[in-house]
Amino acid sequence: MHLFRVWAPLPSKVELQLGSQRLPMSAAEGGWWEIEARLRDGNADYGFVLDDEGPFPDPRSPWQPNGVHKLSHVVDHSAFPWSDAGWQAAPLSSAIFYELHIGTFTPEGNFDAAIGKLDHLVMLGVTHVEIMPVNEFPGDRGWGYDGVDLFAPHQAYGGPAGLKRFVQACHARKLAVVLDVVYNHLGPVGNYLGRFGPYFTTRYCTPWGPALNFDDRGSDEVRRFFCDNALMWLRDYHFDGLRLDAVHAILDTSAEPFLEQLKVEVAALEAQLGRRLVLIAESDLNDPRLLWPRECGGFNLDAQWSDDFHHALHSVLTGETTGYYSDFGSLAQLSKAIQQAFVYDGQFSRFRGRRHGRSPAGLGGDRFVVCLQNHDQIGNRARGERIQQVIGGSRHEEALQLGLLKIGTAILLTAPFPPLLFQGQEWAASTPFLYFTDHDQELGKAIREGRRREFAAFGWKPEEVPDPQAPGTFQASKLDWSEMSRAPHAELLEWHRQLIHLRRTEPSLTDGRLDAIGVQWNEKERWLVMKRGPFTVACNFSSQMRAVGLRAGAHKVLLGSASGVEVTSTTAKLAPASATVLKCGG
């Protein structure tokens, strides 16, 4: 016998649709309905009929093998033969994150094909694989942020069994796995939660429509829904952590906010399993309270992404000053980002027209994940350009652009924060990462027109913006793995490998100590020098030779992006557009 339960306080009658059978369910306490039923002849397809309407998929469906509108399917999580007993993820202080999208990471676009590329990540030196959302969403292709069946791994990727094989294969290679989850909104297609209960509230509004109900009437069970979802990924799929999408859009005025509750419950599961589990937030608020201990009024999350670090580094490399990049562009701001992650820690932001952020003083560098590229920063551009395609605009020749890209990579991989790479970044992949969807004709048209209107404000003509609905947009975003062996991609790949190897073998580069870092720079001459313990990272952003000062002592050049570096006991002469890593006393 199998116990079917569903929280549905809104309808007055709920029935279980089990194959061709329709069985009345009994009302239980708190708006729950339940029934025990036998799974006959292996038939595990089911749904719920609400006041004679439906059947609708289970809000907690573990598997949607036929899409978001069809019946759910039972999954026995105890049946999978896990072999990762005793596995422990590396601490965040020594982490190298690699973000990937299952559908475009390989030509096949599924979990099993992704397993075939994991050895490449091991050779690169990655420690944590971070995958974009894989819960069920409409159609076969998409980013995953418009998911509606949050408990069900996407069928087009390989479903529940495929995801478990992927996680197990990662652990076998000593790779931790972090899943991107979306708890701030749901997609519009296949979203039936509102028929079951008060999952949404009219108290707030989000960019995606009505807000999820975390603090209004009936919110206790809504919070339980999302906490249980997080615990399921960590317990039943053996994920090592979750990346929480856009937590600034989780609107909640509770005395114990949802994020705090979530961290408490994940910590309890961590103690039960004896396995390290982490929660990493994405937030644009620059609010250190996400990371503060509960005793200090914080949520005690393990880490958060730092948009300021990306924006400061991106704007210096590219010269872009539109949109939120209007708040950045100087080496002084990049220096501040290197030293404390947040550039805006309480001062006025021109882009926002107000003061922004709060000081992160007292927090270690291991609490901030930083990047040079990620899915948002590439995919939210009109044509999905990667950074090497926009560095210096048309002002620089190819060699200078390559040099600037190497500088950005050197800063990312030697800064006092856990770095994140986006798929293909390690070889400067030429393939874009575009915004793609697979919706019905009406919604697809609205998305297409909306995206074209958005980029018209930046001077793009409608025909210049790729159609998110076109299959070719999705195909164009798939990595071309053959590039790795060709110039200049092979050169960039080796540069990443060398820097990652250095970071992972030198304790001073993984200690996360922000009190042991110093940065000097010259805006006019366009150079910056970062010092971490015995290491110095000297960067010349200009097209001319530059001389920079060093601490007195014997300096050994460990890595250099260009030849011709001249080093004395107190100075280093740097080639144009180059980065050099030195060790004093080594």
Polypeptide structure, described:
With 586 residues, the chain is α/β, with parallel strands linked by helices. The radius of gyration is 25 Å and the shape is elongated. It contains 14 helices and 30 strands. The longest helix has 18 residues, at 219-236. The strands form 8 sheets. The chain has an 8-stranded parallel beta barrel. Among the domains are: 2-56, Immunoglobulin-like (Sandwich), CATH 2.60.40; 435-476, no CATH class; 517-584, Sandwich (Immunoglobulin-like). Helix 11 packs parallel to helix 14 (489-505). 48% of the residues are buried. 26% of the residues lie in helices and 22% in strands. Strand 2 and strand 3 (21-24) form a beta hairpin.
Percent of residues in helices: 25-40%
Overall 3D shape: elongated
CATH architecture of the domain at 517-584: Sandwich
What is the CATH topology of the domain at 517-584?
Answer: Immunoglobulin-like
The CATH homologous superfamily of the domain at 517-584 corresponds to: Golgi alpha-mannosidase II
What is the C-alpha radius of gyration, as a whole number of Å?
Answer: 25 Å
Strand percentage, roughly?
15-25%
Describe the largest sheet.
8 strands, parallel, barrel
Strand order, largest beta sheet: 9-10-13-16-17-18-21-22
Structural class from helices and strands? alpha/beta
Gap between N and C termini, in Å? 68 Å
What does the oligomeric state look like here? single chain
Number of helices: 14
CATH class of the domain at 517-584: Mainly Beta
The count of DSSP E runs of length 2 or more, i.e. the number of strands, is: 30
Low-pLDDT segments, ≥5 res: none
Averaged pLDDT, please? 95
